[in-house]
Amino acid sequence: MEKPYICSVSPKKANQNEYNMPDDPSTPNDADIVRRIVEGDVNAFESLLTRYKDHVLRIVKRHMPYQEVEETAQEVFIRAYQSLPKYKGKGGFKQWLSAIAVRSCYDYWRKVYRSREVPMSSLTERHQDWLEEVMSDQSNQSFHEKSSQQEAIEILDWALGKLSAEDRIVMELVYLEGLSGKEAARLLGWSVANVKIRSLRSRRKLEKLLLGQRKT
Q1: Are 22 and 99 found together in one domain?
Q2: Which has more pLDDT, 21 or 92?
Q3: Whole-model pTM?
């Protein structure tokens, strides 16, 4: 099939429950649109692009550096278009597209980690001071209040960068987005057992990393 033109799109705020949201029954059926595309109506892909571009961007934005979001979102739609002949309709088009989006993000991090030559440095003194303050405070309320601070975002990004691509994506899906092991497994195409093992392992690694950065 000829490749469709993928127009630029702008990221919006994410919603962690959108992976399982049902398709809108008031709009043309996705399966019918897919059938038309596979039969040669390339322009019909624009309907799917318009319908799901924000959905894909919300997913990608949660897992990618900001500067990579738009390019990755376009790659998701290219992959989806090329895979349409294999689409079976199980679970709905939105869930199928969500899985492609998540796996595209995972593939990005695999590529980045393979090509990374310079080891990541330790946390700065400012971040260490913030981490020490949070971990020394036993109040859960204090932790949640501080978790939205810029230091928390930067430290989490640093720690995730220390994990493998597999551990990173599982950590994000299960612990940061709150998906079940079954939901994460479906998106990644992995077994539930693999996701559960990796989620426990990645959490232990993250805790060890953060504890190791505390000042002595």
Answers
A1: yes
A2: 92
A3: 0.76
